[in-house]
Amino acid sequence: MARIGYARVSTGDQDLEGQLQRLRAEGCEIVRSEKVSGASRDGRAELSTVIDFLRLGDELVVTRLDRLGRDTRDVLNIVHECQERGAFVTILDPHVSTRGEMGHVILTVLGMVAQMERRFLKERQKEGIERAKAAKLYKGGQKRINRKFVAELKSRGHTVSSIAERISCSRMQVYRILNDIGNA
């Protein structure tokens, strides 16, 4: 029986180290991590790998529920997939586990709260953007990746994978940038 940790942050500029340290301190022999949005399961290859790896009696450990997902259905589907493999899910903060029946109820409620938080956040963000637009202060989302640097690395012969690793983004983002600038 293995304790397998999963850590996630939403963007490349966020730090995973706190989650990784906590999971290791909790006795996770294997810890997988990724930098990708938790809004859906799309693009979360490390999570899929962890779930595929789970065996009877194993335990998937995350620091907080929102590291698994922000959508109630996604969280419940992940828990269900783990259970089908005979594995358990444990959230460290607050401490909840699917080892007991009450854990399922608590995870469902927490999943609904996480989804509600996400909706509220999006509403507040939309309201803030509308106010900024009305005040003629809104400039749109800032590009996080230096597109010229990506093109320069590609022209120097770097592979898409090496560019993605160097600038901490996905290969798909690099392909999109190269395609946009006509350098694919």
UniProtKB/TrEMBL annotation:
<protein>
    <submittedName>
        <fullName>Recombinase family protein</fullName>
    </submittedName>
</protein>
<dbReference type="InterPro" id="IPR036162">
    <property type="entry name" value="Resolvase-like_N_sf"/>
</dbReference>
<keyword id="KW-0238">DNA-binding</keyword>
<dbReference type="Pfam" id="PF02796">
    <property type="entry name" value="HTH_7"/>
</dbReference>
<comment type="similarity">
    <text>Belongs to the site-specific recombinase resolvase family.</text>
</comment>
<dbReference type="InterPro" id="IPR006120">
    <property type="entry name" value="Resolvase_HTH_dom"/>
</dbReference>
<keyword id="KW-0229">DNA integration</keyword>
<dbReference type="InterPro" id="IPR050639">
    <property type="entry name" value="SSR_resolvase"/>
</dbReference>
<dbReference type="InterPro" id="IPR006118">
    <property type="entry name" value="Recombinase_CS"/>
</dbReference>
<dbReference type="InterPro" id="IPR006119">
    <property type="entry name" value="Resolv_N"/>
</dbReference>
<feature type="active site" description="O-(5'-phospho-DNA)-serine intermediate">
    <location>
        <position position="10"/>
    </location>
</feature>
<dbReference type="Pfam" id="PF00239">
    <property type="entry name" value="Resolvase"/>
</dbReference>
<keyword id="KW-0233">DNA recombination</keyword>
<feature type="domain" description="Resolvase/invertase-type recombinase catalytic">
    <location>
        <begin position="2"/>
        <end position="136"/>
    </location>
</feature>
